[in-house]
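agent> Task received from the user: take the single chain below, predict its 3D structure, and emit structure tokens. No templates, no multimer pairing.
agent> Plan: (1) validate residues, (2) run structure prediction, (3) serialize to tokens, (4) report one or two observations.
agent> Step 1 OK, no nonstandard residues flagged.
tool_call: predict_structure(input=
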Amino acid sequence: MAHKNTETTFVRSVRLAPSTPEERNRFPHNLPILHGLESLELHPRVTFLVGENGSGKSTLIEALAISAGMNAEGGSRNFSFSTRASHSDLHKRLTLVKNGSLPSDSYFLRAETFYNVSTEIERLDEGGGGKRIRDAYGSRALHEQSHGESFLSLVSNRFRGDGLYFLDEPEAALSPRGILRLIATIDSLVSKGSQFIISTHSPVLMCYPDCVLYEVKNGSLKQTSVTETDHFQLSLDILTNPVVYLRKLME
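)
tool_result: status=success, residues=251
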């Protein structure tokens, strides 16, 4: 895992402006994760955001991606479609502290709207008259592959390196072996000067060593290690003795 350009950082940190009185009592500004959060340092290679459902991690990564110029529903800077404008206005309070260098590639990949991105690629290719967009995704249409296959095809083919990539719960489509393939691909892209910001529930994905990991715990975002996360400890408890654990759960 020897990386060239290991200190290439496109975004060093993010600053959060105070909420206005009008914002404080409405979503997402009333999320506990945002209370007292003024800034967040990002790792030059991989930053993980971890937390329970509803903790605000996906809302935060969505706002980060929009602040970096990504389409709210996913895709690259060149995507501008909107199936349903359900994203929050949190990005308006964010300032990305950049390093001065610009990524040559960027992408926002989110499990929730990946189907919409795949459909938009097909729609854009229907016009013809130029190189097909899907050729950059491995030539085979994403809708013609399984959910997991299409995810890995996108990351393996569309992500070119020297890029800034936002991934929201990428493990949702993947088997354990698929997650390992994703880790290997992420590491290869990191070696090409890329930076990742990832929201995840996967203890396996969190094990990537060259990273910083923030967990939402008791309403606050705290830096921690993978073995200290609730996700890792719960998974370990279950897998150590699944029969006993599930028997107690179902009593």
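agent> Step 4: summary for the user.
The helical segments are 57-67, 114-125, 147-158, 176-190, 203-206, 230-240, 242-249.
agent> Done.
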